[in-house]
Fold this sequence. Notes:
By secondary structure, the chain is an alpha+beta fold. It contains 11 helices and 4 strands. Strands 2-1-3-4 form a 4-stranded mixed beta sheet, with helices on one face. Helix 2 runs parallel beside helix 4 (126-137), helix 2 (61-75) crosses helix 7 and helix 5 runs antiparallel to helix 6 (181-203).
Amino acid sequence: MSDTSDTAQVLSPYAPPKVWTWNKPSGGRFANINRPVAGATHEQELPKGKHPLQLYSLGTPNGIKVTVMLEELLELGHSGAEYDAWLIRISEGMQFGSGFVGVNPNSKIPALLDYSGPEPQRVFESGSILFYLAEKFKAFLPTDLAKRTECMSWLFWQMGSAPYLGGGFGHFYAYAPVKIEYAIDRFAMEAKRELDVLNQRLANNRFIGGDDYTIADMSIWPWYGSLAKGERYDSGEFLQVHEYTHVIRWANEIEERPAVKRGRMVNRVMGPLDTQLHERHDASDFLNRTQDKLQPKSA
Ligand SMILES: N[C@@H](CCC(=O)N[C@@H](CS)C(=O)NCC(=O)O)C(=O)O
C-alpha cells in the first residue's frame, strides 16, 4: 500500500461528501434512537416516588453502577440512600422526554434527582452520580488523598475507556449492520489492551483502588467484569477472555456481594425474568416481585 488515500479506497467505496447530512438511517441496532441534535422530542413529565432520591435509569452497565452503589449504601446502613428507581426504556425514546432532558440534557441514562436539599439537585453522568453519592454519604471513596486520587483516576479511566469498548468494539463486532474488519481489528485491539491494563492492576491488588472496594470497582465491574467472564457481546472466545485471570478473580468476588446481586436486577429488562426488577421503590420489592408482573419487552 503506497499511501493512506490508497488504503482508504481499498477498504471502502464510500467517499464522504463535503457536508454530512442526516438523510438515511445509519442501520444497525439502536439506529432508531440516533439523532444528530439534542433536546426533547416530546413533553413527558417524570414520575416521582416517596424517597428523596429519584433514579431514572435502565439496567445497562452504566445504569447498574448506580443501583449497585445505592444498594451498597443501604447495606452499610445509610437509610438516606433509599430510592425510587424508574425505568427509562431507551429504545422507546423515553430519554428524549422533556422531564428527562431537564435532568440530563445529554439524554442518556442514568440520571438522578436528589430532593433532600432546599432545591432539587440533578446529577447526570454515571461517574458524577457515583462521586456525588460517595461524597454525600462519605462512603466508598477513601479520605486519604493518595488513595482517593488513585480511586478517582480509575473512575475517570473507566469513563474514558468504556466508550471504546461499547461504542467501538461492541458496536462494530455485535451491532453494526456490516462486519468491517478494519473497525473490528482496531477496537478488539483496544478492548484487549484495556483488559490487560486491569489484569496487571489486579494481579497485585485485591480491588481496583487497592485494598478497599470503592466507586472505582462499581464503575468498572459492570463493563469489564462481564466482558472478562465472556458475558458481553458474545465475544469471550474471540477476545480469549480466559487469559485475564486476575480480572475474572476480581469479578467473581464482586458478583458475590449481596448489594451487587440486588443492584444488577434493578431496571433490568433482559435475561431470565427472575433476574429482572423493572422498578424499585422499597427493599421489599426484591422479595415481592412476581413473574407475572414482569412483561418481557425490549429495552
Ligand atoms: N457517559 C454516560 C453514558 C451513558 C449512556 O451511554 N447511556 C446509554 C445506555 S448505557 C443511553 O442512555 N443511551 C440512550 C441514547 O443514546 O439515546 C454515563 O456514563 O452516564
